[in-house]
């Protein structure tokens, strides 16, 4: 402040302005200490920041398993990996964070832990320029997305990890891209959601689930999903269907199935499918079927 005030007083004098060389020289000399102090402060701030950050990492740990998983990295692969003390305290801190969140269901710790590591890929059928079926301005791609959102919520409530392949109606994905996304994510379960149409004369409605014989676990998964979902929705159970051509259930290596949740061509079912209430019922049933499948698998495994 002193420096500034001095300068003010000086620049206020007309005389000083006329003797320019002298004036400029004085100004330089006045400002030099201020520059020195600023540089020193900046260096101190940078040093404090880095030492503080290192201390924070050492005590608390920078990453949790959740954030590293999201970033596609493996826990422990940080730049602190070589420092065992830092790594151990990071693991301990991560465990504390994990335990402080009540994400695990009440049924028991063992079960909750099992689910937490299970990744379910939810594939809302169609999207982008591919609307799917369109009956009276009701687009398949919009309803499959709504059911998929409900399914993600239900699965997360149960303690599962989820990956939804599209989150809006503008995104188009080829079947091969959907398979690739699931494979890259190393998913444990793949469920695709679609809606049916029928252009014959009879009244056709209800739910059916498709699987591919080539897909390991697909038939069991499809069976449990179909049973639970048709029951939860109160829909006609049309049973299981086998496909050799549906790419998403043929080329995925994890157990996969494709749910045809109802017929857009049936007026009553179409109107029900448009309601949040019915979408929730279907999603709840699919989630239940997936859970039944995971439990059946875990029961067969050694403790
Ligand atoms: Zn479809």
Radius of gyration from the alpha-carbon trace, in angstroms:
31 Å
**Percentage of helical residues?**
55-70%
- Tally of domains: 3
Report the biggest beta sheet as strand number plus sense, adding barrel if it closes. Answer: 6 strands, mixed
Overall structural class, as computed from helix and strand content, comes to alpha/beta
CA-based shape:
elongated
What's the CATH architecture name of the largest domain? 3-Layer(aba) Sandwich
- For this structure, what is the CATH class of the largest domain? Alpha Beta
The rounded distance between the terminal residues' Cα atoms is 73 Å
Provide the CATH topology of the largest domain: Aminopeptidase
Strand order of the largest sheet: 4-1-5-8-6-7
Which runs of at least 5 residues are low in confidence (pLDDT < 50)?
1-14, 16-26, 58-111
Strand content: 5-15%
Overall description:
The protein has 303 residues and is α/β, with parallel strands linked by helices. It has 3 domains: 2-60, no CATH class; 65-100, no CATH class; 109-299, Zn-dependent exopeptidases (Aminopeptidase). Helix content is 55%, strand content 14%. It has 12 helices and 8 strands. It has a 6-stranded mixed beta sheet. The protein has a two-stranded antiparallel ribbon with strand order 2-3. Helix 1 runs antiparallel to helix 3, helix 3 (20-60) crosses helix 5 and helix 7 (140-158) packs across helix 12 (276-299). The chain is elongated, with a radius of gyration of 31 Å. The N and C termini lie far apart (73 Å). The relative contact order is 0.10. The model is unreliable at 1-14, 16-26 and 58-111 (pLDDT under 50).
